[in-house]
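User: Can you model how zinc ion sits in this protein?
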Amino acid sequence: MLGRSYSFGKLFGIDIRFDISWLLIFFLITWVFSTGYFPSAIPDGTPMYYLFLGFLTSVMFFSSLVIHELSHSAVARRNGLAVNTITLFMFGGASNLEEEPQAPKIEAKMAFAGPFASFVIADVFYLISFFIPTGVAFIGIFNVFRVLAVINLMLAVFNLLPGFPLDGGRIFRAIVWHFNKDYIKATKSAVYGGKIIAFMLLSLGLFGAVTGLVAQGLWLMVIGSLLNVLANYSLDQTLAREELSKVNISGIIKKDYPFVGIDTKLLKAIPLFFKDKTNTLFASKNDEIVGYIKLEETRDLSKSDVQEKVSKLTHSMGESEALKPDDSALEAIRFMQKKDISCAPAIIDKNHRGMVFKKDILGILNHKVKGI
Ligand SMILES: [Zn+2]
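Assistant: Here's the modeled complex, given as C-alpha cells:
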C-alpha cells in the first residue's frame, strides 16, 4: 500500500524507514504547531522561536511513534516473529511483520505493547514537565512536553479503539479468536468493528465541520475514511485467505519440473530463469532440494562471478520444507511470502516433484471471486 520509502538507519537491527508521504505530515505538524499552538500558548516569542518549538515537537512526536512501533516489534520478536522494517507514513507508523501471529495470546500482547508504550511516554513527558524550571526561558520547553504528553495519550486511546486494523481491533480479534478458535471469523468481526468506528469518526467529523470546527472536523473525516479503506482492505485480504485455505494445491502443481544442480555454473543456470519464465530456481544435490536462487540476485554479477557455482547464491532450504499436494493454497502463499519468492517446489511422490506458481494461486482466487 505504501509507495517509495527511504531509510533513516537501523535501530536494534530494524530498518527505520519513511514513506515520501511522511514528509508532508512532518511539515504540516511543524507548521500547525509553530504558527498556531505555540504563538497562542506563549504570546511574545519570535517566529524563529516558534519554528524551533514546532520542529522539536514534530521530531519528538515521531520519535514517540517509532518507540510505539518498536514496542510492537519487541514483543513480536520475543515470540519468534521476524520484524525487519518500521515505516513512517502520512497516517502513522507500520511494522512490517513477515508472518501473522499464530496464537491469540501472542497477538493480544503484541497489539497491546504499542498503546502501552504510548501511555508510558505520555506519563514520562508529563512528569518531566514538572521538573522544568519556571521562568520565561523555559516556558517553551515546558509546553513542548505538556503537549506531547497529551498527544501520546490521545495516540494510545485512539489506537485502542476496537476496530481492525487498529491495535485495539487486533486485541478485539485476539479475544474473539481465543473463544471461537476461528481466525477468519474473528478477523471479520474485528474488521466490522473497524467499519463502525470509521463511520462514527466520519459522522462526528461531519457534525464538527458543519457546527464550526471545520479543520478538526475535516481531519476526523480524513481519519475515518482512511480507517474505512484499511478495514475494507483487511476484509478483502481475509476473504481471500479464507478462499485459499479451502483449496489444496494438487490441481495447480506443474509436474516434473527440472531443478538445477548445486554445482552447475551460474552462467549455465541463469538462462533457465528465462526459459522457465520464473524468478526463482530450486537447487538440488543428489536429487534432494537444498535451496533456491533468485533472479534479482544474479543481475549485477561480473564476468568472473558467473563462472562460480549455483551454490554461491543459494539460500538453503530442506527437502522437508517443500509443499505437499494436500497443502492448502494459503499455506503455499505463506511459504512464498516468508521466503520472498513467487514459486515453490511440491513433492508429489517419491519420483515426482513439481512446482507451484503464485500466479496460478492468484488465478484460483480470481476464478472463485468471479464465480460467486
Ligand atoms: Zn500500534
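A couple of observations from the model: The radius of gyration is 26 Å. The first helix runs from residue 20 to 41.
User: Helpful, thanks.
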